Amino acid sequence: MQVSLRVCSLQDLEPGEGLRIESVTPPIAVFLTEEGTVHAVDDTCTHQDASLAAGWVEDCRVECPLHESTFSLLTGEVDQPPAKKKVRVHEVQIDGDDVYVELSQEAPNLPPGVTTA
Amino acid sequence: MTSYIAGSPTEGHLLIIGAGLAGYHAARGARENGHTGPITILGDESLPAYDRPALSKAFLSGTVTVQDLALDDPDHPLDVTWIGGSSAVELSASPLGVHTADGTFHMADTIIIVTGAQASRLPFSGTRNPDVYVIRNVDDAMALRGCVAEGKKVAVVGGGFLALEAASTWMDRGAEVTVVAGEANPGTARLGQPVGCAIRALHEQRGVRFAEPSRAQEVETDEDSQVLRLADGTRIEADIVICAIGATPSTAWLRGSALTLEPTTAAILCDDTGFTGVPGVWAAGDCAQWASQASGIRPIGHWQEAVEQAGIVAAALTGVPPAPFQEPYFWSEQYDVRIQAAGRLAQADQVQILEGTIEGGDLLVSYLKDGEEVGILGMNRLREIKRWRKLRQIKHRAALAA
Ligand code: FES
């Protein structure tokens, strides 16, 4: 069943920055772009255990803070190694000040050594 | 407007010698820039290009498998022919090509040499083969992974990040670890006093012992023991010795070839596009020394440097504007601490703690030259380091013009 979760308020977000949401498993990252759009993807990079919320957001992509792979905030696709797999994208709805996320039903591509348990 | 001329025919045969990080990225870059001819990558190991940094960390601890290590994406593989287990033994300038150990001559229109470097080893003496390991390739790491760690005495020789990563992995695996390095606080000369102290504290808090600073000289074995002998006379008993004392360019096969090798290190000398001076032959990564590295402006032996060089060679070959060099960047993982550094640390005349403490393992350190910030280092400061790098990123010329 699809449910919308309130994950944060717009005030919690800073343009160009990501916010890690740990209340869901695996954690997700919510981004407010400089252009003012809000996106949500899995927070954990698919290469290693790095938080994409700490990454660099530009042109609707987030670059992993550890290595050079970047992920599309629209599709989750990765552009170059070392990461090979995409991250899941979660649907975002804004209601007033509240940011709601509908979690993807796909299986997450977690890096080796990271489990949801 | 500068125009770029392709250094290699687009439909020609591109032969890449070395199946490592630089080889993979050179091939990938050539394809992305429109190289349509065949690309062959010869490697002396059996595996195609893999993620080497993981060998001393996640692979050594068993978290990551051989499949996980592969750089190429099995779902979107590069259009190249990988030939494994094939060592180059001779370069021919005319006709252009490479002879391999199995007697094959591989003809080429363009050659990129990316054979990397091989780990330096300590001499040994005694009655049996010593339990001494290096960490350079998958086979080395597999051998180490197969060793029982629990309760074993392990001596790690070297004070660089590779040595310290090995120390942390072996502590986590339950060994008793002693680090033998030239500095009391490893990293001080290169990264500054606070960072050297923080690194030592990080390891001491987990129970690593540090020998008095000295140079390891030899490993001696007899039937039932093994001893690491240091220059100051100290003898350290160790079931396992791990050597991380640097690497030398894998260029022995090029002695006597038309290429110019650096007299001391035997690195292949290149200009800042990777061109060797011999028509059709280019080199990048750890086997090469580019002009800006010779002058000390650029670092040698870093992952990031190999990727950038590979991209520049691929651009030069295909005639597209090369991406400009970025600030050097390197990183390490020790226990649960990620150390990242960017910029020109070697030029700094002052090191300043911006945030965090030595004991806390959470330092953010700035490197200054004449009062101007030239570098940064963070321990578990992923956000800050990424921002520092991106704000200093030099954009592609084409992108700037647009
Ligand atoms: S951890 Fe994200 S690219 Fe390596």
From TrEMBL, chain A:
One Pfam match: Rieske
Boundaries of every Rieske domain copy: 5-101
Carries keyword Iron?
yes
Record key words, sorted: 2Fe-2S, Dioxygenase, Iron, Iron-sulfur, Metal-binding, Oxidoreductase
Source taxon at top rank? Bacteria
Record flagged with keyword Chloroplast? no
Query: Which Gene Ontology MF annotations are present?
Result: 2 iron, 2 sulfur cluster binding; dioxygenase activity; metal ion binding; monooxygenase activity; oxidoreductase activity, acting on paired donors, with incorporation or reduction of molecular oxygen
Q: What is this protein called?
A: Bifunctional 3-phenylpropionate/cinnamic acid dioxygenase ferredoxin subunit
Q: Which organism is it from?
A: Nesterenkonia cremea
Q: What is the lineage of its organism?
A: Bacteria, Bacillati, Actinomycetota, Actinomycetes, Micrococcales
**What is the name of the gene encoding this protein?**
hcaC
